[in-house]
Amino acid sequence: MASLFSFSFSLCFTFLVLSTPSSANGNRGVKNCRSYCGNITIDYPFALQSGCGHPGFRDLLFCMNDVLMFHISSGSYRVLEIDYAYESLTLHDPHLSNCDAIFLGGRGNGFTVEEWRAPYFSPIQDNVFMLIGCSPRSPLFQGFPGKHMPCRNVSGMGCEEYYRCPAWSSLGQGVGLGWGPVYGSGPPECCAVAFEEIRAINLSKLECEAYSSAYSLAPLRQEGPSEWDYGIRVKYSVQGNDEYCQACEATGGECGYGDDVRQVCMCGGFNSTTNCDSVPSLATRRANSLGNVMAGFVMFFSVWKMTSGWR
Ligand SMILES: *[C@@H]1O[C@H](CO)[C@@H](O)[C@H](O)[C@H]1NC(C)=O
Ligand SMILES: *[C@@H]1O[C@H](CO)[C@@H](O)[C@H](O)[C@H]1NC(C)=O
Ligand SMILES: *[C@@H]1O[C@H](CO)[C@@H](O)[C@H](O)[C@H]1NC(C)=O
Ligand SMILES: *[C@@H]1O[C@H](CO)[C@@H](O)[C@H](O)[C@H]1NC(C)=O
Asked: Would you kindly state where each structural domain of the chain is located, as residue ranges?
């Protein structure tokens, strides 16, 4: 009896080991895509490792000394926050002017994304870009003589209010550029626009000296320009094909992409083009299910043997 029990137990154990290749030999293929940078969680569609996340978000985030950086064609930004529920993130550019200081010299990044990446990122509608010290020849003012047509308030934020910031009074002294809230017939010293109107905030192309950006997270409305949230608030989107990743994660997989930039579902021991319940490759799948059936049978048999033997 004892020998039969130990025989069936070892048989059962053998089949269990055989039938779970993912834990036995699959660890090479297992990635843990979720990670952290400082206190920011990096999760789908973002990733720090290549092969993880959505392909539209590849080569985008870098973690340096616990500082998360976002890299696009216009430059590198520090990521202050990623809001997964609202699919948005907040970026900071060291040359972004705010209420305390205006950084001249056209060194600011602005915001421009590569054409292939553009569908995935766009500053939110409640984000205002304030372009400062732009040349009268700037494309911003062409076609709108004297009217400054593109300049407007965005979500209650605009240059009229921004002029009240201390940054302007310190700028007026000594610089000799003649800037200030009062202007004559020329273009305004500051022109506020929403991103949709120009699509590319490129200071050299727009011939501007500086820029600022602030955003409003409705329904919160900040009182004055000193209370505004300065930074670039960007909405991200995986372009509607998120069902793929949801199905993958629901079956215990992690979403990634292959060398051909197609999405893959990483299922521990194998990669699937759909999800982890789908047939990975006929051979391993059949072996697995056969192993499971046999292990189950042996397990049942040995338990039945044990309990019936004890009665
Ligand atoms: C992360 O840490 C910084 C300070 O190091 C803090 O200002 C920020 O609020 C933290 N963010 C989160 C999401 O905890
Ligand atoms: C910005 O504009 C300049 C001048 O037109 C151009 O050379 C540069 O490539 C643009 N930058 C980006 C990031 O598009
Ligand atoms: C922006 O709003 C201010 C008041 O907050 C107003 O005085 C100004 O005329 C508005 N500017 C534009 C361009 O609509
Ligand atoms: C699955 O795909 C990921 C991302 O391309 C890759 O790093 C990994 O090696 C692949 N795993 C297997 C088992 O092929």
From this structure: 2-30+268-310, 87-236
